[in-house]
């Protein structure tokens, strides 16, 4: 393996859109990288096809750090989700190639396993408590040992995190399970009222603890909708129910805003699924304003950059909680599992199962047992792409929803 011969971008939409970079070397090895950016997929396709792929041909695939620095610094325009998803795809494909060339599962090249498996959480939801309880029981039966709790809010028609199958309002395009993006020509509109949400949620967690007991790790996603003082109030109100974490309590671009949240609550905080570099975490980490880093390998410059963020976070007792919705492709999920198995400060892994058609496009070797994931021991990432199968499902335009308050104002989704 001395040079990269081809760099192809494969777009497929079996259950939803995925963008995959496939690198092939002079000796016929292939490496895969995930470049899926939910709702803006084709921007990354163009970035890769038109600007990055021509630079990769003839390069030494072993030079992962040098290639990362070259792509980051030579573009002049730094950071941003499109750039960092494109760099991530190249980086993960190079790690996949290096591990395949070595004949080892990727986690071995990252230092070897630090644990036997990765605790994963799933998404339970319901419009009301009986539906939510059924969903929690269903997840326990599927083997989950940590569960995110999202519910409807009285007075609101469409609320983030409630499964599409439970929602009568979802009319635009097709969605499956909890996937929030919908196929169609315009984003789905949802409604929001933070005061109604703040009044409702503590009672939901009181009921869930009453039904399922004190031990089950419970998580909740605020999805960027609160101000810092509202988030502080919610965190304090949820303290009796011992959350594993409260996620994205504020939009967090203003990192200093988390100081205010921390002054008011000891509920653990997780942030960062929309971040894409270490700079987005600088204040949050050095001032210990969060407990979990939510970044995905796919959106944060790949294994090379996320590893640096997590090593930085480890010095402050902050752990990983990598983003793992269905828009992280099986390639991106595999990268997360190898990284999570190797690092010392692993916390928890989000895990939403992909649909059956997706599993036919991407052949995977990970295992799921007793609530824990393991990437498997095949050389590389352990994922292969069936290009014939992928070719059956052309790209379909899709958007994430957006929010309006009751007076019509656009709000954070
Ligand atoms: Mg989230």
**CATH class identity of the largest domain:** Alpha Beta
Work out the helix count.
Answer: 13
**Strand portion:** 15-25%
User: Could you give me the name of the CATH homologous superfamily of the largest domain?
Assistant: Enolase-like C-terminal domain
Small molecules bound = magnesium ion
Averaged pLDDT, please? 95
What does this structure look like?
This protein is of the alpha/beta class and 413 residues long. The protein has two domains: 4-104, 2-Layer Sandwich (Enolase-like, domain 1); 118-380, TIM Barrel, CATH 3.20.20.120. It is 35% helix and 18% strand. The strands form five sheets. Strands 4, 5, 8, 9, 10, 11, 12, 13, 15 and 16 form a ten-stranded mixed beta sheet that branches. Helix 2 (64-74) packs antiparallel against helix 3. The chain starts with a strand and ends with a strand. Residues 170-176 have low confidence and may be disordered. Bound molecules: magnesium ion (MG). Magnesium ion is lined by residues 221, 247-248, 273.
Summarize the structure.
The protein has 413 residues and is an alpha/beta fold.
Give keywords.
globular, 20 strands, 3-stranded antiparallel beta sheet, 10-stranded mixed beta sheet, alpha/beta, D-mannonate dehydratase, TIM Barrel, binds magnesium ion, 413 residues, 13 helices, Enolase-like, domain 1
Secondary-structure map:
Blueprint: E1 4-12, E2 18-25, E3 30-34, H1 41-56, H2 64-74, H3 81-102, H4 106-109, E4 118-126, H5 129-141, E5 147-151, E6 182-183, E7 189-192, H6 194-212, E8 218-221, H7 228-238, E9 245-247, H8 257-264, E10 269-271, H9 282-286, E11 292-293, H10 302-314, E12 319-320, H11 330-342, E13 349-350, H12 356-361, E14 362-363, E15 367-369, E16 372-374, E17 384-385, H13 387-390, E18 398-399, E19 402-405, E20 410-411
Parallel strand pairs: 4-5, 4-13, 5-8, 7-19, 8-9, 9-10, 10-11, 11-12
Antiparallel strand pairs: 1-2, 2-3, 4-16, 6-18, 14-17, 15-16, 19-20
The structure holds magnesium ion.
């Amino acid at each position: 393996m001395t040079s990269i011969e081809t760099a192809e971008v494969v777009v497929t939409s079996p259950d939803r859109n995925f963008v995959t970079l496939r690198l092939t070397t002079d000796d016929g090895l292939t490496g895969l990288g995930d470049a899926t950016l939910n709702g803006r997929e084709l921007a990354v396709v163009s970035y890769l096809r038109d600007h990055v792929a021509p630079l990769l041909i003839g390069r030494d695939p072993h030079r992962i750090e040098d290639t990362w620095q070259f792509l980051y610094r030579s573009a002049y325009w730094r950071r941003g989700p499109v750039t960092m998803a494109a760099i991530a795809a190249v980086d993960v494909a190079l790690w996949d190639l290096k591990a395949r060339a070595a004949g080892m599962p990727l986690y071995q090249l990252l230092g070897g396993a630090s644990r036997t498996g990765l605790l994963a959480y799933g998404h339970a939801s319901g419009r009301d408590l009986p539906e939510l309880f059924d969903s929690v029981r269903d997840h326990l039966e599927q083997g989950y040992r940590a569960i995110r709790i999202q519910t409807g809010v009285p007075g609101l028609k469409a609320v983030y995190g409630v499964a599409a199958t439970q929602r009568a309002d979802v009319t635009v395009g097709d969605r499956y399970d909890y996937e929030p993006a919908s196929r169609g020509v315009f984003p789905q509109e949802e409604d929001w009222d933070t005061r109604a949400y703040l009044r409702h949620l503590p009672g939901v967690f009181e009921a869930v603890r009453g039904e399922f007991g004190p031990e089950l790790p419970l998580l909740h996603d605020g999805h960027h909708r609160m101000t810092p003082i509202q988030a502080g109030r919610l965190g304090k109100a949820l303290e009796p129910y011992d959350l594993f974490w409260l996620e994205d309590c504020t939009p967090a671009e203003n990192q200093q805003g988390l100081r205010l949240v921390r002054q008011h609550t000891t509920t653990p905080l997780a942030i960062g699924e929309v971040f894409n570099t270490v700079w987005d975490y600088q204040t949050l980490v050095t001032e210990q304003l969060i407990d979990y880093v939510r970044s995905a390998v796919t959106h944060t410059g790949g294994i090379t950059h996320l590893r640096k963020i997590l090593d930085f976070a480890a010095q402050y007792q902050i752990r990983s909680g990598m983003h793992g919705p269905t828009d992280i492709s099986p390639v991106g999920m595999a990268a997360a599992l190898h990284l999570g198995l190797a690092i010392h400060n692993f916390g928890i892994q989000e895990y939403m199962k992909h649909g059956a058609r997706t599993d036919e496009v991407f052949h995977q070797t990970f295992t799921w047992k007793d609530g824990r994931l393991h990437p498997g021991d095949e050389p590389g990432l352990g994922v292969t792409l069936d290009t014939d199968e992928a070719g059956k499902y052309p790209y379909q335009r899709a958007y994430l929803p957006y929010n309006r308050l009751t007076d019509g104002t656009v709000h954070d989704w």
